[in-house]
Amino acid sequence: FAIPLLLAAIVFMQMFKDDRNVAMVVLVLSAFGWTQIARITRGAVMSAKNEEFVTAARATGASKWRILLSHILPNAMAPIIVYATVALGTFIVAEASLSFMGIGLPPSVVSWGGDISQAQTSLRTQPMVLFYPAMALALTVLSFIMMGDAVREALDPKARKK
User: What average pLDDT does range 101-130 have in this prediction?
Assistant: First the structure.
């Protein structure tokens, strides 16, 4: 948690300047982005583990694996799915930021960050060249955030309004 995702990605992408490709960007972003999902997963599992239905399953003599697979994981998946949906937007912005700075994907690979970076040169004469990739990026990230909220409302019965 002490190392921000984008800062770590910048440092590592600068270190491996010659090997910039999609796989390297995915590897770097996932290497430093997994900590949040691990924290959410741990919290969800610890919360589900202390529920009454787990105690009841233990009392009936269910094995640890059965309790884990049948009771804890299904009840812990909702917050994990919600966070993962919202985090996709974060990873898209991180990739676009790296490509915008010229240290993400190479120019031969299509990226909204690369498109925004290239559009800077013609901003005064053709502002729409910048508008389209920036708007696509913003709408995509907004869509993932709204989808995460919708999934949260669908999966969390306590959050539903009566």
Answer: 89
